[in-house]
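Subject: two folds for Thursday's group meeting

Dear M.,

Sorry for the delay on this. The cluster queue was jammed most of the week, so I only got both jobs back this morning. I'm pasting them in the order they finished. Each block is the input sequence followed by the predicted structure tokens. Could you check whether the formatting survives your parser before we put anything on slides? The first protein is the one we discussed after the seminar.
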Amino acid sequence: MAFLSLEQLDDRVSSASGITVDFVRDWRLAASRLNAGHRTAFQHGYWLGAWYEAFRDVAPLIAVISDAGTGRDIALVPMISHVRRGIRIVEFADLDVSDNNAPILAGDAGIDTSAARAISAALIEALRAAPDRFDLLRLKKMPSYVGGRLNPLVSLGRTGSCSLNGNLVLTGDDYAAYQASIRRMQMPRCWRVFSRSAGARFEIATDAGRARELLDVMDVQQQERMRQLGSRFVLNDDAHARFYREVARRGVAEGYAVVSALVCDEGIVATTLGVCYGATYFLLRISHAGKAWSNCSPGLLVTERTMAALHARGVRRFDLSIGNHDYKRRFGAEPVPLTDVSVALSWRGLPFVLRDHAAQGLRRHPRLSAFVTRAIGKGSR
């Protein structure tokens, strides 16, 4: 990883165990440290660069963790700080658009259980010592491993404590065998039905202009779907729209951002948006044109066609995103646990940590959780 000069660092806090934590308040200064290291698709420079540009109502807070003796980088943690109900909160740069969150780990960083605890302790100590007087650290949706390396920050919590999980499909090298394993979904039949439409085709956008056209349609289709369900839709507001289009602009040409569609002479029937890093693809958004096309299951079909196209490019791991919709099981997805962490950085943050831990505990007892949910619902009427 590249190093920043000392003058470029906004805050320097030396911690115990020979680990130094520096805080950078400008993502552009920290971005040079993304040149190497282990990460998931959501710590890619295209994703984080677009994120910090789009969501401007929060303050960037990037922790650079290094060896105090050698100065070698160990990890970079892309975070933000903001105030909610008077509480100063530190969390990942996410705001519910990323499927997972994690530090970027140096390529040569050897992290065992002991090192993980030391790194986590150093980060907390540095946050408590910062002049901002932070109250609460919340780290959500963390995978246990990052690029095959132990995620050190998971040591702060209980593995699998997050209410959400990934949904991973491993196709193997033989895509025909995978298709046979999901034959009950009748994707070949759906493709035949769709192909009867004049000009029917599947496409993946290869340039930013076409990606933007498909995203415009996606916003309209998803908004209509949310209207029918009586749900609020925010992904087309100024910040979200700017974010997704910037991710596509930066990453579609080289295959990081994947925007695909079912198209015919009548128009764009279905779309997907995802990101691809290495041999792993994350499906993020799906839209379709509604009941008029239900005979070919366009949402499922555009997903399967995208998987087939990416498999031909060498992708073997397909994460169908957080949330446990039934169709993901039909694709053969297996749940991947994620971890939430809450740490009080001051006495003001303690009640929020206790509440977070209570919610995590309830999730381990579904019947009790359901009872409490019903009781709260009745009491709020």
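Second protein, same layout:
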Amino acid sequence: MKRLPVIFTHQLTRYACSPSTYLSAAVFLVLCAGLGLQLGQWLERDSSDLQVFFQFHPWLYLLLIPALSIQLWSDEHDVGFRTLIKTLPITPFECVFGKFLAAWFVCAIVLMLMLPIVLIANHLGEADNSVIRSQFLSSWLLAGSYLSAACFICTLIRQQVVIFLLTIGLLLTVSGLYSVIEALDHQMPIWVIDSLISLDPLSRFDTIDNGKLTLSDSLFFISMILAFLSASTVTLNYKSR
């Protein structure tokens, strides 16, 4: 774990030096604000939270997460990175978690750039900041679960274009699962529907997004993150043999 900060700093520096990081973050923020104001009609709703903005995050992450994921292992063939790996005895665990934490930190920064909307909400009326905090947390946890899945894909495939397309495909499948469950609502036993809902990250995201922050929902996302990162570590260990 002593080398984890080295990997974290190295990956964070790569994100800071990459124009695609700023472009994807700008697109995410502009679309989030535009959709919330236009489609969500936030100003007309007189709402005390920011649900009209956060409800679009699962779909907007289809743009942000793939853009971040293709940079996770883009330095595998970089001479400087290979020298760093050889100089320091860095384990696959440290490599996976360090890179993931750097990408997740970038997601946190992008979410923090929504702070002006929070200030406007408090200026216009009595905003429920406890609900808003849970909405930020739920979005960050959802981003982490998406990133962990993307990190696992990156350990399996090297081609950036394939990684980008597979990540979008995976996230689209997860995003569309909620619609499938709703379509099967009256056609399958209730225990099957409940089981599918319990495994659907978007249903749990909607629960937290509505201000109902529970320990079970938070643990679900954390468990999902740890599961994918563990799978990534095992994959790297197998490849390094």
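Two things I noticed about the second structure. The mean pLDDT is 78. The chain has one domain: 4-239.

Cheers,
T.
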